[in-house]
Design a protein that fits this description.
With 174 residues, the chain is mainly β. The chain is built from no helices and 11 strands. A 4-stranded mixed beta sheet has the order 7-6-9-8, with no helix packed on it. It has a 3-stranded antiparallel beta sheet with strand order 3-2-5, with no helix packed on it. It has a two-stranded antiparallel sheet with strand order 1-4. A hairpin with a 2-residue loop joins β10 and β11. The model has no long low-confidence stretch (mean pLDDT 87).
């Protein structure tokens, strides 16, 4: 009697060995049965990678290298602590859906960032004259219009111009 013996692993597993009567056998081959036979297949769990790409950020405590973690199929996938990036707010990972357990494939996630908005307040004689909204991708490039002589108050000061830093930070007042 001819018998085709095929050992097909489930998703996330690989065939480690296949034996017929304790002799190695290749899955998919034909075996000639002449008596009772013992067929044994052994499977191993596969390991896959999860890559966390910083996209310009850094990990808490420092470090800017992407992280690559190895996970066995079916184990819990835990996302890392949110990274940080100067001038940006971390908005999550892309793709956004992180599986609860490791699927039978490698995964890659990239950090997503939104520029942090800052308000620059231009003060004139202790009074707010104008405001500007800036971020790291759109820094302050021009000052507001100069005030008219009537805006200078009672002291008849001569307005000489605005001074500001090229890259304002949160809380800067001019």
């Amino acid at each position: 009697c001819l018998l085709t013996i095929t050992a097909t692993p489930d998703a996330g597993y690989s065939l480690a060995s296949l034996t017929v009567n304790d002799e190695p056998f290749t899955s998919g081959n034909v075996h000639t049965l002449t008596a009772d036979a013992t067929i044994e297949a052994t499977f191993t769990i596969n390991t896959y990678t999860v890559t966390w790409k910083l996209n310009g950020g850094q990990w808490q405590g420092g470090g800017t290298d992407d992280r690559v973690n190895n996970h066995n199929y079916g184990v819990e996938v835990t996302k890392p602590v949110d990274p940080s990036r100067t001038g940006y707010t971390f908005t999550g990972w892309s793709p956004a859906e992180i599986p609860a357990t490791m699927p039978a494939k490698n995964l890659e996630f990239t950090a997503q960032w939104t520029p942090t908005l800052y308000t620059v307040t231009w003060m004139l004689g202790g009074t707010e004259h104008a405001t500007s909204t800036v971020n790291i991708e759109n820094p302050l490039s021009t000052a507001p219009d100069n005030p008219s002589d009537g805006d200078l108050g009672c002291c008849a000061d001569k307005f000489m111009g605005w001074s500001y830093q090229q890259s304002p930070r949160a809380g800067d007042i001019f």
